[in-house]
Write a structure and sequence with these properties.
Number of strands of chain A: 3
Oligomer: heterodimer
Structural class of chain A: mainly alpha
Shape of chain A: globular
Largest sheet of chain A: 2 strands, antiparallel
Distance between the termini of chain B: 78 Å
Distance between the termini of chain A: 43 Å
Radius of gyration of chain A: 21 Å
Shape of chain B: elongated
Strand order of the largest sheet of chain A: 1-2
CATH class of the largest domain in chain B: Mainly Beta
Number of strands of chain B: 16
Structural class of chain B: mainly beta
Number of helices of chain A: 7
Amino acid sequence: MMKTAILFLSLTIITGTLISAPRLFSLPVNDEIRAATPDDSTAVSRTKRTPVQDAPGTIVGLMNPELIPDRAAHTMLFLVLADRNTSEERAKARAYLGRFRLDESDLVAILAAANDYRRRVGVLNDQAKAIKDKHWPKPAPKVFVALRELQTKKETLLDEVTTSLHRNVSPAGLQTIQKQVIPYVKSRMKVTPEPRTLPGGEDWRPSGHISKVMRGN
Amino acid sequence: MNHATRYVLIALLYFSSSALVLAQRMDYADSWVVLSNGSASLVGSAVTDEPYTSYGHEYYVTATLTSEEDGRTAVSWANGGSCGYSNIQCTRADVSLPILTNDELLTGNFFLESIHEGTCPYYAMNLSQAYFGIPLLVGASVTVLKKALSTNFYTKIPNCSVACPVDQYIAGSNLGQFIQGLVPWVYFYGYQCAPGVGIYPGSSLSTCRELVGVVNLPFP
């Protein structure tokens, strides 16, 4: 019975992944970001230092930015800018956007949108946490229905904030966001598919590294 | 309902409409320069976010920024995730290293590394890591600007080609006939010019140039 279930599960997951990302399996898995310097004569040959392989199906935005969804890029943009409340942190957020030569009013609008998203998504995060706290580690199927509804709300919220932002910035600012900022964010992202197996399967490994990191704190 | 059947149903529900929602984990790492009041820092930020429908993970992000010129390193570790112990869905680790002080410009080769890890504590199992290893060349463009007669309005001298130029500068007072505008930049698949400019004294001998490495200030 268990083997049958696992086989069925694998088929289901493969089908689901193909639906969600049809090009996923044709992607090259590139875990090495090559050094790129302005002048080859002074280039320093540097590659990653830790041999960590990306999970199969990982989309590397530097190589395939067109495969990173706009929603994902907006989410990351907001999360990297939000909750920077000290003067030092605000300077970081402003410098992040300052690279794109945005007008002050557009810059302020993006920061406001990021904080708005972070504040409002926190409500949904709390609900998701409460659900998982109550039902984990053995959630009933209906729990995933509830979580999926929350996820849909989260994405609706993201769309609302993004739409509002696009209304609040100048035409030039909107163009900068769409043509420069979002493509840039995508180039700094990776999108990893959820594990194809349940804990204990091939996409998981016994923990040890995490606990090592935790001991360091 | 037995254990296996439960998870088959969960998987069916999880993936049945996966085309409609973001059912993928997202990781991000980036670095940029913050210039403020004549000093500057290279900052890095590494972020992970996951969908609510994940089986349930805690995420940990470790970001490390290293200067390959002088060995300075900044490390930051952050946790979060949605597997039960935290109400923080997003995990973000920030790091920072000074690159411009009153005395020195500390640019050159840097390396931003971030490791994004997920775990399910109930089963003591880890997910695959996401890794970013970003080699960065950090420097600064120096633009020489000349003062217009009887004003404090400075404009870039002719034949001045640098990565991050300063075309003009309006000073609050007379800073002399020549000044130099310094704009730090980060290069990784293209220049990212820091917003803002540091102003230093110049002379008729000053030239437009790029500064990379450790440079004592004020520069000639």
